[in-house]
Amino acid sequence: MEIGALLGLEQLTWGMLLLIVVAAFGAGWIDAVVGGGGLLQLPALLLIPGITPVQALATNKLASVFGTATSSATYYRRAKPDIRTAIPMALIALVGSFGGATLATALPASVFKPIIVVALLAVALFTALKPQMGAATMLRFRGHKHHIAAGASGLVIGFYDGLIGPGTGTFLIIVLVGLLGYDFLQASAKAKIVNLATNTGALLLFIPHGAVLWILGGILAVANIAGSYLGSRMAISRGTTFIRWVFLSVVVLLIGKLGLDVWNENLAPLFAGAL
After folding, report:
1. Closest CA to 30 of 251, 259, 211
2. At 223, phi and psi to the nearest 5?
3. Alpha helix (H) ranges present in the chain?
4. What average pLDDT score do residues 1-28 get?
5. Measured between alpha carbons, how far is 11 from 13 in angstroms, rounded to an integer?
6. How confident is the model at residue 128 (pLDDT cuts 50, 70, 90)?
7. Are 244 and 127 in contact (CB under 8 A)?
8. Is the Cα torsion angle 263, 40, 252, 151 positive or negative in sign?
């Protein structure tokens, strides 16, 4: 039986499906360690002939919800993150993701991408030049100030996830390590819980519009779960140094991806007009 006919995508082949499943497994692994798996999974989905961008985004979120749920549960059992910070931050981030998705309909994401690229470059340099950052938890705020800073960060990053999306888990780790003072392992554990909320918020927006490809999303969810489980186990067993190096690698890839977007959306048309 033709797999494309079964999944409602006539031009999808078994070979292409295998490639996308492998990408989903890799995305689950990356997401579990440092976030940013959407940089791999979403482009793979967009390779399918006939799929619309909205279907790709919605199906990506479906698979990601299962992956982040798996890694969240694994981290919770083994790393014991402080849910008194993670849960309120997650709920506020969910609200932020709705706000970002609303604004996305009126304001192009290309407006924000140049700012994000500059911020990521600064983060990459700071992390590379400060090898002790994130090696141990040294909280920068106490009491109500800590929860206010966490909530405000969740709101901003949730808003970003609804507006643009790629690298949300990575940005969560940046904030949890750089602003709040957690080590990389604890930051990854909390980031998964918050990212689960932002993925769920986006999915709740897509489902009523009929954008989710449920069978394909279910297949990718299984691969995402497997990758997430392996990634979270490796992160917990290998600790903060391993997470730090994977984090730097994903930040560099994120800079490249968003930098290319800035070139195509902002700079290339200017050069074309000048010529």
Report:
1. 251
2. -65, -40
3. 3-7, 14-33, 38-46, 53-79, 83-104, 113-129, 143-163, 168-174, 184-206, 214-262, 268-274
4. 82
5. 6
6. confident
7. yes
8. positive
Q: Report the 3 state secondary structure along 18-69.
A: HHHHHHHHHHHHHHHHCCCCHHHHHHHHHCCCCCCHHHHHHHHHHHHHHHHH
Cα separation, 152 vs 197, whole angstroms: 15
* Amino acid present at 144: H
Structure tokens given for 166:
């790629």
Q: Check: CB of residue 185 under 8 Å from CB of residue 55.
A: no
Q: Which pLDDT value is given to residue 115?
A: 65
Is pTM, for the whole model, over 0.85? no
Give the tens place of pLDDT for each residue, 59-98: 988 999 999 999 999 988 888 888 889 999 999 999 888 7
- Residue 67 CB neighbours (<10 A): 35
